[in-house]
Amino acid sequence: MARAKKGGAGGEHGAAGQSDVAVSPGAADDEAPAGSDHAHTAGIGNGEGGTGATQHQDVEGLTGDAAAAEIEALAAAIDAANTAYHQLDAPEITDAEYDGLKQRLLSIEAAFPDLVRPGSPSARVGAAAAPGFRKLRHARPMLSLENAFSATEVEDFVARIRSFLALPAEAPLVLTAEPKIDGLSLSLRYEGGRLASAATRGDGETGEDVTANARTIADIPRRIDGAPEVLEVRGEVYMTHADFAALHDSGAVSGAGKPFANPRNAAAGSLRQLDPAITASRPLRFFAYAWGETSAPLADTQSDAVARLGAFGFPTNPLMRRCPDTACLLGAWGEIEAQRANLGYDIDGVVYKVDDLALQRRLGLRSTTPRWALAHKFPAETAWTTLEAIDIQVGRTGALSPVARLAPVTVGGVVVQNATLHNEDYIAGRDARGGAIREGRDIRLGDRVKVYRAGDVIPKIADVDLTARPADADPYAFPTRCPSCGAEAVREPGDAVRRCTGGLACPAQAVEKLRHFVSRAAFDIEGLGARQVEAFYAAGWIAEPADIFHLARDHRDDLLATEGWGERSVANLLAAIEARRTIPLDRLIFALGIRHVGEAAARLLARHYHDWTGFAAALDAAHDEASPAWADLTAIDGIGPVLARSLTTAFAQEAERMAIDRLVAELDVLPVEAPRTEGSPITGQTVVFTGTLERMTRAEAKARAEAMGAKVAGSVSARTDLVVAGAGAGSKAKKAAELGLKVIDEDEWLRIAGS
To answer: pLDDT at residue 10 above 70?
Structure first.
């Protein structure tokens, strides 16, 4: 069914890891609770999204506030979709819908670079490992892929590669093209030729240990000959259509007690069984297409390395080919799409990769995606059904998100009952500036609506059939009061989202904040999940995070008297809570649930301020936007003024600050570890590039600096450590000279960078 995927901008297939370039942190975002209905229905502006015709407000017409609001709402939907797909094996949106969200997010981030936050889902892969499995940290991160939906985007991708590498048009550039398998990513680690461990993608950094299960899959060799001493083979676990049909007919069910929705869910659910005997009974297959850590190179090219994996005994896709130009890539895409229905397994696009591994290393990685690969997705699927109701859900930051409840309809083989409606403008048939979308057709209860799941992600309503509209259907009146607490719900100028003003007094916001606090990327308290938080809140035992650490003192007897809780389970819960009194600074910052602050932003802040005392003092001082503290905060690469203002505002609110202080009083907050960049002369330094570099593009230089542990800033300040001045350096070089900063030329930079 719908899939809620994959970090970065792209899919499961082609999880990167073969490059030696360091990766910057990924991030979760800040609104939707993992696994909840709200998780996949946050308002996301006014667009059609997906691969269908888009009717978003033009990015160029967005104000800064409107862009920030839409970025937040997009992030909320994408983050929760990742959790549903990667953790729960219960995706609630389609690939193309998800891809549409990503596409819109990337467009806004490109137009408003100061709003790009490390907490964006464009800097995140997958979701945290699910409970019940031991966690394994990947030696090299498992990345995702950037997506494309048109020939123009593919042409742009190739042009960007040439620009990044400064390759002239006549210089050869060979890429590979292969089907994008719709399955579950898996990394297999071989040591001395023997299968030592197997892990799912997880959040890209840490996955679930499924070693025993992987050993039951016939396509995965237990032993390989002639391989490097250490070899991580990466690929996709999948199930054929015929095998899925047989499994479905047998009555096999998912962890939720329902029949598996499609082959991808069946493959994921079968691999992620706590009992390997169940996995062994399921007809799982495997395609290898990449690698992670290796003690020796496999080959000089992508195609030769994959061929060598095939020689080791791993199944590789026979449709993979080498292409010397864009026309060949697009031809391969068309031919593979034409064969899609007859392959016997699910694919949702074609993956392109630069063939020369030396060029891959030069191109390097973004936070979650390699620059040298692209997933060219297939179009969306649609169906018509009836809109039976519109529910309003309230998120952690008070966002009111409309959810369409639909008469069940099958779209691309998946039964869809819910769809996102984004926000009140989208329902009304207009964009944020009042312009028409869907030619001005609004959405009303009882309407016959067109639903689509582009490629496999969050279902969306694309259009309305006015000829089938009931005579008594009235325009939908979006609530101006919070359905949870009754407080006024306001929409600030430029904001696409209406928000509850109830704050912590709003039960929905309070519960969502608590759910976020105990989520896996935050405090991750074993035994204290979303359901327990809701129950404890309803019982009056917890109202804010600090109360969790008082449960042993104030409510141990209440717990023991509660059905389903016994001496052992209560003892385990209280011990898990006590264990979380010691928490790294970055996890604490993320757990606070401050708007716009995701996991990676929290890591950047923790690395910059080192400890809680310095962080809190800096935010207090930065509330004055004319202060050096504000300049220092906004100079952090990836921390723009919108995110910074959200932080300082939260710390300036008396009630919220008191709640934060009460929490911190219960904790031992650990400083975050510095990046592992041993031997780098610029680790921890702030570097600014200015002017034109002649032997390395600016983009390549920035990527290299970040890989060496430096912070790359866009402006020069007193806190800048190093300025690299290329030809034609202007105002930045002048300011650096005035401040007495160290300025070097390109030759010196190349010596530092080891190029």
So the answer is: no
SS (H, E, C) 112-175: CHHHCCCCCHHHCCCCCCCCCCCEEECCCCCCCCEEECCHHHHHHHHHHHHHHHCCCCCCCCCE
pLDDT for 713 = 79
The stretch 488-493 carries a mean pLDDT of 83
136-377: CATH, from 3.40.50.300, 3.30.470.30, 3.30.360.10, 3.90.470.10: 3.30.470.30
Task: Name the strand (E) or helix (H) holding 266.
Answer: helix 263-271
CATH no. of 584-670: 1.10.150.20
Is residue 231 pLDDT above 80, yes or no? yes
CATH of domain 37-124+381-468: 2.40.50.140
Label each residue of 686-720 as H, E or C.
Answer: EEEEECECCCCCHHHHHHHHHHCCCEEECCCCCCC
Max avg pLDDT among 54-68, 205-219, 661-675: 205-219
Model confidence over 149-166: pLDDT tens digits? 899 999 999 999 999 999
d(CA 587, CA 280): 37
Report whether 459 contacts 2 (CB < 8 A): yes
- Catalytic residues, by residue number, are 180
Q: What is the dihedral of CA 43, 47, 48, 53, to 10 degrees?
A: -170
Per-residue pLDDT tens over the stretch 552-606: 999 999 999 998 899 999 999 999 999 999 999 999 999 998 888 888 789 889 9
Beta bridge partners of 356: 301
When mean pLDDT is compared across 266-270, 695-699, 734-738, the lowest value belongs to 695-699
Q: How many CA atoms lie within 13 A of 320 on its CB side?
A: 25
Query: What is the C-alpha radius of gyration for the chain, rounded to an integer number of angstroms?
Result: 26
- The CA distances from residue 450 to 24, 38, 384, 388, 402, in Å, are 40, 21, 4, 13, 17
Give dist(CA 74, CA 101) in Å, integer: 6
* Sign of the torsion formed by the C-alpha atoms of 57, 59, 65 and 71: positive
User: Per-domain residue ranges for the chain?
Assistant: 37-124+381-468, 136-377, 584-670, 686-753
